[in-house]
């Protein structure tokens, strides 16, 4: 904890120096010619920085061991408390959580939703804040006493109410943040909340249904994975695996426009959520356009419970992970967007208008008009660095024409995946979260894993996806040309290749040189920077602790120093969970961390309540016993 009082400015200067050193090191490496497999890892520029033994100034806690226990473990001097768990009442009149799984849809609609994911904290004043949290999906084995085997119409409504977003006021009393169940901003947004489709696809034929001839009025959001936030104070929630909620009892021929998104006419028996059994909105025979109304980024005002959430079609339709928003030097809003599926793509939106401090009417239009791009990376064999370009997804350009199946710009947005293929985007190893370093010049993205890499023709090994059968994942990063996020050019390299140096020594599957048997992990997913530039890394990986994953234990959170490449394990989660979702209080003394699906698939977890209790997805509060800055 030696640099507890060190200023952010010092860290920033240090970071800039390190990046400069790495850049000159890279220049040196670039002259060393073609690389063989043996030199591949040692020539990772990040690893080279470590080899130079730069001392870490950012990380001042001890790396903790992997764990298979049903608890949260943290470094010495840290503690965790539950902020709220699935089923806790958040609206006036809602009942307390019941263990027996027999509460109805009304109860769930007033309680914290299930499977906490991305979240953002909006501070109102000292000790008073609004927290917006995604509720991605739900596990029927815990939601219902019948485990989902005897669904009723109300059960479908209950499952729909367990999804969406929860907004709660928090108050800090006696040094601890707590949910204010009376908070006037408290709100549940579910799969049935009215919202509007806005932007270039709004009102298009492909978005009209029997219930909505306008093609603009849609009910609900679901499978809300990660998030983003805007400088004008709104929350962005990202719709990911929306395909799994649709089905049909009739045999249907669905074309490529459905298949590319995984939308299938499954029967009730084969359906995971069985919504179409009782809600015909999800029956593809009756509402073939309903899936086109999902898969968007939704903008929500967390401080106005009456505000209608807005689906922003200008940001494209795919399986959105998060929405990392920044402003370029001239004020354009730039949003980086991952599409989490094997062999899908990485996107960037650039607003037409510019942010004007305090001009809410202007700023709230910024995600309405703009240009969407998709990334193409250079693919040099055995190179963990290179260049790249952003390819424009605009109707009439780059082959996005009527002849190629796109009637207009709306169809380019609705079928953004197909558009990305036509323009020649790079297929990626499942882009999950994107995070922008506080220097606003470096962008990081987790590529969580991809068993198809090297096994499918459209997913060759190389560039930012350097390993076949990639079951460990990697984090890449890029610098926009001249530090300008609106630029079409960038340079990239690899921050870390996850791996297992014990099981696979001296191979690519050992991971890069900043991975050791003491900090190894698989499947990086959630990432975020704190103000000092620490990179927090959350995992959603295999927790068998066997075979390829031996020694990695439960899912976890690590912390990386982008200056040195060093990574230390900071937190381990309970049995069969995923760690996902993070945000900080502005003074960085409190960190909010999500524990999703402990005990999934019936695994023996009783987190967080213990005893024989049902496991419950929970938002945790991490603090230091001495009240200091997290990680410092
Ligand atoms: Fe919801 Fe890609 O994680
Ligand atoms: Ca995720
Ligand atoms: Ca994941």
Automatic annotation (TrEMBL):
Pfam families: PhoX (PF05787). SUPFAM superfamilies: Calcium-dependent phosphotriesterase. This is PhoX family phosphatase. Residues 449-471 are annotated as: Disordered. It comes from the Bacteria. PANTHER family: DUF839 DOMAIN-CONTAINING PROTEIN, SLR8030 PROTEIN.
